[in-house]
Fold each of these.
Amino acid sequence: MQPASKLERRVVHAAEQALERHSHVSPLDVLIGLGWAPPGLVTDWKQGRAPHLEAIAAVPADRLTDALEIFRRWVAGRGLRPSEVEYLAATRDRHPLRFTASNDPERERAYRTHWMPADLPESQRERLTAQQSKPPDLVVMQAVRPFTCTGCGQTEAELLTMESDGPICLVCADLDHLIFLPAGDAALTRRAKKASRLSAVVVRFNRSRKRHERQGLLVEQAAIEQAEQECLSDEDARARRRDRDRERREAADETFQQRLAEQITAMYPGCPPTRAAAISEHTGTRGSGRVGRSAAGRALDPDAVRRAVVASVRHEDTPYDELLMAGVPRDEARTQIRDDIDRVLELWQRRRP
Ligand SMILES: [Zn+2]
């Protein structure tokens, strides 16, 4: 038998360590253990900022291939059992993550295959596989410099999320109904995230540290309110609510919002007045980039008004947000809920009894 090479010893060491620590081991664990896939860059890749894993690796692709070949032999000798795991990007479209530049199906599958001890009880295997395939939290970035949305072409947006074609604004990503909750209060954040059907982590690139840092969370307005209720005994929570209410009042364009609400009621007499008010407050907020702030929206163009109402119905009256949170792609989710939207609109178009 040939003596083990230096690389062989390092690969086996990394694999044994991962297996001991997590009861399973993946090719990515080994590359991280070797120091060839730096964790910060792995995060970039998982959040859609690198085309594939090879692009962020510290060594050329053929070195990765050597290491994975050693890993394959070690797995066979160890008698481990395979289980294929899903790797999804933490982006709005939740696209499958790519590992190789060549995108060769066999090598991609090898990367997705995790290995567990053969004697692990079935229930524990299932739990581990489900855990590893869970869709990641959505991630939204604060723009460090102005960008052009690849969806609508606007250049004013401050938040973006990456899709395969490039950055898109939150209006195009259907995330613009969410409210920013700055980091800092762990209890409030945890409760708001739990109460929100759809949420996203907000990060910002820190140039000097060369990494993305967490700034807070985007959650539903109702989720913040519920979380605040739960925390309300504490004085800070009350102060923060006052700040947020003041910001909302400053951004409000009340005359326009009033006219928009009247137009919604004229077009949809069955829409409850509180909903019409909420829709116009939401879409008419200054600096929001929402349909209520576009030229057509300002002119109360029926098409623009309809779009604002549809957006609200989509988030409030259909399972759309739950579908997105579960990783269903946006187009597919929209197809699934189309009938639900039509039903609500039809109801609202009738005059209320
Ligand atoms: Zn856009």
Amino acid sequence: MINYTAALTRLVRDIVARVDALSFIDPDEVLVFGRFGRTGACGAFATCHTLGLPTSEPGYFFWRDRETGCVTRRSPWFVTKTPRVVLGGRDIRYLLSFALPRFCDQPFGGTRKELLYPGAPSWVARLDSVVHELYHIDPEQHGLRRMTSHDGAALEGHHSPEFFERVAEFTTCYLESRPPEEIVEFLKYDFDGLVARYGGVAARTFRNYPSYPQRYHEPLDSQPAVAGVRVVPLDARRQPEIYTDADLCLREFHARGSRRVMSPVVIAA
Ligand SMILES: [Zn+2]
């Protein structure tokens, strides 16, 4: 079986070592993990998550009566926090998640991506996705790079054409540096190809899978009184405040889901 996230982690180290524009990234502060994502379904192939967002100002949710506009219910006051992920005693600043098997099966022919790599083999689409997520890391601060348009205006939730072009430039630069075959070989297979080549695909996940470190609401200890409005509790699903090495595990992914790898297995690559 291949440990796909270990292979991606080695690739990330090699990319930041070879591409000057991404050399500010400390790979020891980046953790790669797997999520389930069906091939062909809508959704991202990969995502960059920052753990650098500060605790929010206190606030609460409220619901209004549609006709009178009066507030009828509200949640307790809370702050929104980011969990810490501490591995080997070090704080992780960014998580990169990869949707499996969708990431491995992403199309290339006929896509916008193909136009950026004329004549390139289809596996370059996967390399482009890895570089894309690394390019989301902000060199200036603990967060995600701000997206801006040509005139400098913020592009919330959108990627500018320049973003894709820069990613293609860095991807090409990485390929031109002639990375070792053993680092990039795993990218050359789609999901079925990986299973045929390695016997299966495993990935690091968090023990609370399918969850992972995400922002969460923490009610304030002392609740300011608000008269006359019913208070409804916050969603009881809570995140750990801190994740450590003990919160990581390995799962084997397949076309329709994943299962925990319990017994020691030989992991190739
Ligand atoms: Zn993106």
